[in-house]
Amino acid sequence: MGFSFQNTTLGDLSVGAFLALTVPTALAINASRVHLRLYWYSLRYRHRTIRISAAYLFRIKLDDKYLLVKGTRFPHYQPAGGVFKFSPQGQAFLMSIDAQDDELVAIDDRSRSDLRIRIPARNLLKFYSWFDGRQGREDSPWREFHEELIVTSVLPADTFPYIFHDYHGRVVDPIRFSPQADSLEILMADIYELLPTREQEEALRRTLSSDRQDFSWFTRHAIERRGVMPGVTSNTPIADHAQKIL
């Protein structure tokens, strides 16, 4: 006599055990691939400097659309979020691996302590291990959410005194040469998905009909095409990194 996995507790336990084993394994495999890739970079480019920008991005989705905000440095739409910041403890570590300030973005009160730096390639794995450990750096996406969506009154402060969110993993782009930075560059982004309460979802839905220009809602197709739609004379520029939240 066989067991029916659809109708027995044993089946439920088996599925749960399978997921409990395979999901962490998949994450571990992905993390191992990232480590191997960074290790190769640290060897291949060991005599060069690499620019690193470590950020977080919000996936805010209603039905089939995603909320994007207009950037302040570039006139395109992008996910809410920004660059992580480091603490004094983190600054001490960064000094120990010879990290330098990144001159691509002017350092002011807003950008100070941003994890937008340049380090010797030989220290790439040390940096990543430190970043992955979360000590000495910002470990919450709330700051940029508040600055970009609450302070700007896109969303009401009384409805968003706090947020819940899921962590959806990290995207570490392959190394590339950036003409703007005149440097090798690696972009990293942690992806978070907003989990609104019922009241918060209602507030989000009210923005769907807004005619404001500093934010808008876009379909997956529009984001994949970076805002360039066939047959449309006036297109809306969407940042390439917006695809990371899909």
Explain this structure to me?
A hairpin with a 4-residue loop joins strand 9 (176-178) and strand 10 (183-194). The longest helix is centred in the N-terminal third of the chain and has 36 residues, at 9-44. The strands form 2 sheets. Strands 1, 5, 6, 7, 8, 9 and 10 form a 7-stranded mixed beta sheet that branches. Strands 2, 3, 4 and 11 form a 4-stranded antiparallel beta sheet that branches. The protein folds into 2 domains: 1-44; 48-245, Nucleoside Triphosphate Pyrophosphohydrolase, CATH 3.90.79. The protein is globular, with a radius of gyration of 21 Å. It has 6 helices and 11 strands. It starts with 8 loop residues before the first helix and ends in a 22-residue tail after the last helix. The protein has helices at 9-44, 88-96, 124-133, 142-150, 198-206, 220-224, and strands at 49-59, 61-62, 65-70, 77-78, 81-83, 100-101, 116-120, 165-172, 176-178, 183-194, 215-219. It is of the alpha+beta class.
